[in-house]
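Human: If only I could read backbone structure tokens as easily as an amino acid sequence. Underneath my words sits a plain record pairing an amino acid chain with its backbone structure tokens. Take your time, and here it is.
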Amino acid sequence: MKTETTIQGLSASLSPARAARKIIGFVPTMGNLHQGHLNLVREAKKLCDVVVVSIFVNPIQFGPNEDFDSYPRTLEQDQRLLAEVGCDIVFAPTVEQMYGNQSRLTNISVGGITNDLCGLQRPGHFDGVAVVVTKLFNMVQPKYAFFGEKDYQQLAVIRQFVRDLNIPLEVIGVSIARAEDGLALSSRNGYLSPEHRAIAPIIYQSLKAAATQLQAGEALADVLANLGQNLTEAGFEVDYVEARSPQLQKVQQFDQDVVLFVAAKLGATRLIDNLQVKHSA
């Protein structure tokens, strides 16, 4: 496994694969890897000859009061984990390598689906994601790119701009990886105190209970209200509890497949999760 820190080095490492018309797969990450990230690499290995993983904590997707400076950076540990699952190239650029020293005058904004959920709570976040992911796509030029479904809204945003901008690759979503107690794996779980870590799985438990209630015929509005109340009573500070279509359109009743979304804080740690609920006609 190679580690490259410059765009030129990445291009040189990929040149033989491109010359041989090998299938390149790409997994963008911010590092501090867990099994969810490694599952993305495993899925990439099934389809691709060469797998590239980027490790880059992207400053322009963090708000002014968010955790950019404290976000865990664990490159050596990440490299060991990636080697174990067969990653071929790690791309770990600096901020200067990614953005240069000139002012950036170009932005990428995806309308509509970024206006609520995490987009409402984190203004500018998805613009920052869209810019960095587009830049990485241009650098790696993969055939397939792999993203986790825990960040469901992010996945929808990426699919949208790939389609809108005719970026020649296929975006593949991979199911949420969970701890044994159901908590969706996230690099930010490491911020949780032991007490909060014990409470955190209630998000998934509450989502599953909500799905059961929906499929038993309870009204969507009542189910969402109960879900929010359960989380508040358990000690969460709820940012939002919402239901959307799989394409992120608002829904008023459970008459189609829906996705239930939760964002909530335990202490200073913001957790997100979602659950897809099938509607049986």
Summary: The first helix runs from residue 7 to 19.
